[in-house]
Each structure stands twice: as C-alpha cells, then as structure tokens.
Amino acid sequence: ETLWHARDGGSLASRPEPPLFSASPPKLGDPSGKDLVGNETALKILKILTAKTHDGKSTGTPLLDLCHACWMMTALKEEEFAKAQESLEKKIIADREAMEADLGARASVAGGALAAVEQA
Fold first, then answer.
1. Which class for 60: exposed (0-12), middle (13-18), buried (19 or more C-beta within 10 A)?
2. 62: preceding bond cis by omega (within 30 degrees)
3. What is the pLDDT at residue 24?
4. What pTM was computed for the model?
5. 3-class secondary structure, 69
C-alpha cells in the first residue's frame, strides 16, 4: 500500500484523512490471470507452463520457480523498505525534538538577555 504524507505548516508529515486515493488490487476471477492479461495471453502463458521439452521435462517448473524467487525478492525489499521508513520516521521525530529543545534554550537565553538590557 502506498502512503502519501502531507505537511501542514511546520508540523510533521502525516497521512491525509480521508486518503487522497487508494490502489485496488486486481480482481482475479480464476488462477490463470486472464482478468489481468486477457484470454489470449493467459492461454499462451498456460501453454508455456504446461509445455514439455524434447526429453519430456516440464518447462513450467523453472518458470514458476523464477516467479517465486521474484515474489520473494519483492517481499524482502518491501520488508526492508518498511524497516527503513520506520527508522527514518523515528530519526525525524528525534531530530525535531532536539531542535525544539535547542530553540527553547536559545529563547530562554534571549529572554534573559532582553531582561538584562531592559534593567540597565
């Protein structure tokens, strides 16, 4: 799911409510995938997956293994991204808190200096 974040003034980026838009997953009527690629292409894919080589071996198994590996890589990258995004959000919050504390300290020093000048 793609998250879009927006900033309002100096606030932290947050997810807009209600969401601006959302992606809807493809709806598969059957496992051949014809809803996604069409009847002709789905038939070609199924013929490739069920075809036999000259020595009687199925060509579909290596192709399905390759697809499975691609799906696993996608899942691993999505997990890696989620962890990196969470780490970034924590760092941004910590940096903002540090800047706010520094700003507060500077404001108190400036306020003390102003009071000293006004007394003099």
1. middle
2. no
3. 64
4. 0.43
5. helix
Check: CB of residue 12 under 8 Å from CB of residue 92.
yes
100: its two tokens = 């706010």
What is the identity of the amino acid at 39?
N
> What percentage of the chain carries pLDDT values higher than 70?
69
Tokens of 14: 């947050």
Three-state SS string over the chain comes to: CCCCCECCCCCCCECCCCCCCCCCCCCCCCCCCHHHHCHHHHHHHHHHHHCECCCCCECHHHHHHHHHHHHHHHHHHHHHHHHHHHHHHHHHHHHHHHHHHHHHHHHHHHHHHHHHHHHC
Find out whether 1 and 23 touch, Cβ atoms under 8 Å.
yes
Which of 58, 65, 60 minimizes the C-alpha distance to 46? 60
Residues β-bridged to residue 6: 14
Q: pLDDT tens, 56-103?
A: 777 777 777 877 888 888 889 999 999 999 999 999 999 999 999 999
